[in-house]
Design goal:
- The complex is a heterodimer.
- In chain A, 32% of the residues lie in helices and 24% in strands.
- Chain A is built from 9 helices and 13 strands.
- In chain A, β2 and β3 form a beta hairpin.
- Chain A is globular and about 70 Å long.
- In chain A, 46% of the residues are buried.
- A 5-stranded parallel β-sheet of chain B has the order 2-1-7-8-9. In chain B, strands 4-3-5-6 form a 4-stranded parallel β-sheet, with helices on both faces.
- In chain B, α4 links the parallel β3 and β4.
- In chain B, α1 runs parallel beside α10, α2 packs parallel to α15 and α6 packs across α11.
- The longest helix of chain B has 16 residues.
- The termini of chain B are far apart.
- Classes of the chains: A alpha+beta, B alpha/beta.
- Chains A and B meet through α8 and β13 of A and α1 of B.
């Protein structure tokens, strides 16, 4: 009997087909000692404060310029840990696969995940596979949860303070614009790519430099507008941004023009913001430029006591306006 | 010649130095004004530009904007949205409409809420996408809920033309296309109106030409400047209006010379005339019924008219906005969004009570999002 090219319901049935799929595909790609034990639950040896996070990935399309759902599923969860100053260590991984999904594409996704894991050193130590009848899911959905040892305690949205500088790691909106362009069949002349990336290597350097980081967050769904509004509310501070200082690629701006979006509202998957004392900002940027591959890192704003809970955007010609939390159906299934 | 890039279409029109220079010229000239200039920007797109770019903050106190009724989503009365919802609930009907329309609440909820309940409702960016949906679903009836001012009517006309040409019989239309000049007349019919100048939307005039505003200039003796949507465009148009006022002129001017002519796109106008005729009356949310202010399909195309085909099943009860809502006064320039008791309290973009809050182009929505920075 030849090996099937598509996922069958039997691949999720708990029997021989599932064992084969797990053995051949997942174990080989994610191979590590803990996973190999094949226990009901992974047994971990951890001490001290631990960060714990979970995220589900339902992006459409599954493959896009700059990544695929697998890369997102690893980078997304690893980044959530990194943003808490935690070293990403152990991940779980649940697949929900639609009957008929091509095994070759699943393999590509799984291999991308394995490659992405190497960038942080995190391991997938437990997992689950379900197959649902055709039409009950859209190709594949992935959930990953992760734990990691907190190396730098105290990084928190509540620690943002007046006098802090807001640093942005790179240009914004690439992931949102790339997904939108892919979904609408928009043929852009230049290669607009998702910024999807594992941020731990950069964060590790920032921690190593022993900088007093107050808060850190990757600007995923809702973009920097959502993150900064959350900070302003949580810490009861105002945040003032300079529009000119925020780098936006022409292609991203073009997509925004065509669809009536604003770059601050667009999702990112490898772009983060930091709040730390103004007087340390130059040093932090220096570290980011030198060791973190963040050539574009720069100060984009400041934290104030005035205008508590509000984010204010200053235009290049001296007017200002509130930068609101994005609302409504911006773009479903972005990650 | 190198190819034109999208960036070139807006970059110069957002140049900080140009905006600042125009602001200082306006300020200087406005000092010579003998009475305040109350400019109505008819179109919600302009309201959005003014608020988003903070242009109001750059202008002297004797120039005021009055935010007009030119947002096709905002002016849609609830009963028309109820009709869309009723159509979407019919078995085997797919309702297709444009972007923002899906968020606007009717009396029983928004189309987004009906979609969550299981109705097949599809927002599209391009009207022609409705054709593809109809082709892919031959056993369903696809109803295109058409909205928009003169700008978007030709696209509906082309959709209808294609459906006829290709013999796609399962595509019907619910027409809500409205017209700018009758709305201006409705605003000016109020003896207490303070409006004494207009900025006209450039995209409307790309189709109709700037000519549609000549009667406004003649009848009401107000300057009208057809303007683009970038900050430099709007500032330039304000400067033109102030110049006219200072020199005692009232003329029709075209700031958007890069795409607008006096006569407009005559091929598009012919197409609209071929498929549409003027509706005797249309009820505007916030303004009430305005005669000859909207379009409907010509009798030859009644077989495509969802209003006729499903007439008996469509609700017709007229539903007004909440009593506390002051959208009517705001659209006539008699009140500002902040004057309304429910603004920002009972009425927000997530739970709009009145027309001006529903779409990002509505005046209250723009104020809620951008205004009030101290």
């Amino acid at each position: 009997m030849s090996t099937p090219k598509q996922i069958q319901l039997s691949h999720g049935g708990g029997g021989r087909e599932m064992a084969e799929l797990i053995g051949k595909l997942f174990f080989e790609a994610f191979d590590n000692q803990i996973l190999r034990q094949e226990e009901d639950a992974a047994s971990l040896n951890m001490t001290g404060p631990i960060a714990f996070t979970t995220d589900s990935f339902v992006v459409s399309p599954l493959f896009f310029k700059g990544g695929n759902i697998g890369k997102l599923a690893i980078a997304g969860t690893v980044n959530d840990l990194a943003m808490m100053g935690a070293e990403p260590q152990y991940l779980s991984c649940g697949f929900i696969i639609e009957e008929g999904f091509e095994i070759a594409r699943l393999k590509e996704i799984v291999q991308t995940m394995a490659a992405e894991l190497k960038k942080s050193g995190a391991k997938i130590v437990c997992g689950d596979t379900k197959v649902v009848p055709k039409g009950c899911a859209d190709g594949v959905f992935i959930n990953t949860s992760g734990v990691g040892r907190i190396l730098k305690p105290g990084i928190s949205v509540h620690a943002v303070q007046p006098g802090d500088a807001i640093i942005l790691s790179r240009d914004i909106g690439c992931h949102g614009a790339a997904i939108l362009a892919a979904r609408e069949g928009l043929e852009l002349e230049s290669e607009l790519q998702s910024d999807c990336a594992t941020l731990w290597p950069m964060v590790e350097q920032l921690i190593a430099a022993n900088l007093p980081l107050h808060a850190m967050r990757d600007a995923t769904r809702g973009g920097i507008a959502a993150v900064l509004n959350e900070w302003a509310k949580a810490a009861n501070v105002g945040i003032e941004l300079s529009e000119e200082a925020i780098p936006v690629r022409d292609e991203v701006r073009g997509v925004c023009e065509l669809y009536g979006f604003e770059p601050w509202d667009l999702a990112n998957e490898g772009t983060f913001v930091i709040a730390l004392p103004q007087e340390i900002a130059a040093e932090a940027i220096n570290v980011m430029h030198q060791f973190c591959n963040c050539d574009q890192a720069r100060i984009v704003g400041t934290v104030t006591e005035a205008n508590a809970e509000k984010v204010i955007l200053h235009s290049p010609w001296g007017s200002k306006r509130y930068l609101e939390l994005p609302a409504g159906e911006l773009l479903p299934r972005i990650c | 010649m190198s190819e034109l890039q999208l960036k070139q279409l807006y970059d110069g029109f957002r140049d900080p130095r140009t905006v600042a220079e125009l602001a200082s010229q306006i300020k200087e000239l406005a000092a010579k004004l003998t009475e305040p200039v109350n400019v109505m920007e008819v179109c919600g797109g302009h309201t959005h530009t003014i608020m988003k770019y903070g242009l109001l903050q750059l202008l002297p106190d004797n120039i005021e904007f009055i935010h007009g009724p030119g947002c096709p989503v905002c002016i849609m009365p609830k009963e028309r949205i109820d009709q869309a919802a009723a159509l979407a609930q019919l078995p085997d009907v797919i309702l297709v409409t444009l972007g923002d329309m899906i968020r606007v609440p009717g009396s029983e909820g928004s189309l987004a809420q009906f979609r969550a309940k299981g109705c097949d409702i599809r927002p599209v960016y391009m009207p022609l996408d409705a054709l593809k949906i109809a082709q892919e679903n031959p056993d369903k009836t696809v109803v295109y809920f058409a909205i928009g001012f003169e700008t978007s009517t030709p696209m509906t006309a082309v959709l209808l033309e294609q459906a006829e040409k290709l013999g796609i019989h399962n595509l019907l239309f619910h027409i809500n296309h409205v017209l700018v000049p009758p709305a201006i007349d409705a605003v000016m019919a109020d003896p207490e109106t303070r409006v004494n100048a207009f900025i006209g939307p450039s995209h409307v005039s790309v189709i109709t030409g700037s000519q549609i505003y000549q009667p406004t200039v003649d009848k009401y003796h107000t300057p009208v400047v057809v303007s683009g949507f970038e900050p430099v465009d709007v500032m330039q148009s304000i400067l033109s209006i102030v110049k006219q006022k200072v020199e005692g002129r009232c003329e029709l001017e075209n700031q958007y010379e890069r795409a607008v002519s006096y006569k407009g796109n005559e091929a598009a106008q012919r197409k609209v005339a071929q498929y549409f005729t003027v509706r005797p009356s249309f009820r505007w949310r916030g303004l009430g019924p305005i005669p000859n202010s909207a379009l409907m399909l010509r009798p030859e195309y009644r077989h495509r008219d969802a209003e006729l085909k499903y007439g008996e099943r469509l609700p017709v009860k007229e539903i007004d906005d909440h009593k506390a809502c002051q959208c009517g006064d705001i659209l006539r320039g008699k009140a500002k969004p902040q004057d309304c008791k429910v603004f920002g309290r009972g009425c927000t973009p997530q739970t709009p009570l009145g027309s001006c809050m529903v779409s990002s182009e509505g005046a209250c929505n723009a104020y809620y999002r951008y205004a009030g920075v101290k």
